[in-house]
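re: that chain from earlier
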Amino acid sequence: MNTTKVLRQVAAAQATTQHRAPLIKFIGKRTAPESIDHTTQAHPAAPSQNLPDSFATYREKAQQHGPLNYQPSLSTVGGAIGGKSGQSLGPVQPPKGQYFDRNELPEKFRRKPWTQAEIDAVQTGGASLFA
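^ sequence. v structure.
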């Protein structure tokens, strides 16, 4: 007999003898608390439990990728990026021990060229290794 037919017959027999009970248990209607404390409080994991006097005083000290109260000078009126020509910035050289391109590294750290056997293995999905 076909396995699918047997499983369907067993499921039909169980369905008639048992009532299906949901696995989710509902706990009833929720109610809002009578009183909620809406006063501002520091986060429990904050380094200090002191709150700033106002948002303006907080913003004076805040840092996000640099000071938030940054005032551009007249020399950067065009913006910090693109405000000056590349020639005026001077030559760009990496610091000692750092490299811009992998080909500038010493020979032992460069990528090794692929062999023809490796190329064939990748192109055939590894089948050429067993042929």
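The radius of gyration is 35 Å.
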